[in-house]
Amino acid sequence: MDPTSIRPVVLADALPGAFESACLVECVDTSRPQRQPLPAPVPRAGEALAEFDREDAADRLVYLLDGLGCEAAREIRTGGGRRRYEVQRVVVAESQRLATSRMLAAAWRQGRQALLGTEQLGASSPRHVQRLVLAQAAWRAALLAAGQRRRGHLLWVTLRDQEIAAVLVRAARLLGVTAEVTRRPGCVVVTVAADEATALPATPPRLRLRAGSLV
User: Fold this and answer.
1) CB distance 11 to 54 below 8 Å
2) CA-based R_g, the chain, Å
3) Is the peptide bond before 39 cis (omega within 30 degrees of 0)?
4) Average pLDDT in the 4-29 region?
């Protein structure tokens, strides 16, 4: 059997970390036209899996990927003239680029389906508990990578397209927060009231992830 034809599945224990990783990449991915679903193109040799303008977002992705058994590292690229800037690049070992991309695509698909599903679940149901964990993972990624801003009574994140915005709106609802979406030229903005933002995840926890997340 051709292994490239096998649709990967992320195991339940690893899904929160893998889904958060996929959301981190999704928040900053500019390689695909808007509203084109994952997977993104597999990075070529020397090409970054994702690029951030914040060190903590890049470090978070490296930490998650390492926990999932992927060899990842953060690199810093500088640019600009008189006004210098730094880009935080996350790169994956060449031998793992394809497997990592397939894992992130599977995690995005599974996490998105879980969050956007309309099936009624009991509060103590394991699947409901998983939804809450995935909702926290999505917002944790967005608050790190999507350029969060605060002004007056609002907090907002700026995103690439409607797909990740829909996930965040649903995730916010599961966490007891009301989120609204506004379309702007070239981006989508998701806003929440600042007094409700305390219900969103803040400091990333040290997740216990299991290697070998694909079956």
Assistant:
1) no
2) 17
3) yes
4) 86
Relative to beta strand 187-193, strand 85-92 is unpaired
Q: Give the residue-averaged pLDDT of 167-182.
A: 96
Q: How many other C-beta atoms lie within 10 A of the C-beta of residue 96?
A: 15
- What number of helices (H) and strands (E) belong to the chain? 5, 7
The pLDDT-based confidence of 213 (bands split at 50, 70, 90) is very low
Asked if 157 and 147 touch (Cβ cutoff 8 Å), the reply is yes
Please enumerate in sequence order all residues whose Cβ is within 8 A of that of 186, keeping only pairs 6 or more positions apart, or say none: none
Q: Which two tokens stand for residue 7?
A: 């649709």
Query: Long-range pairs for 30-33 at CB < 8 Å and ≥24 separation?
Result: 30/160
Distance CA 215, CA 213 (A): 7
- Amino acid identity for residue 57 in this structure: A
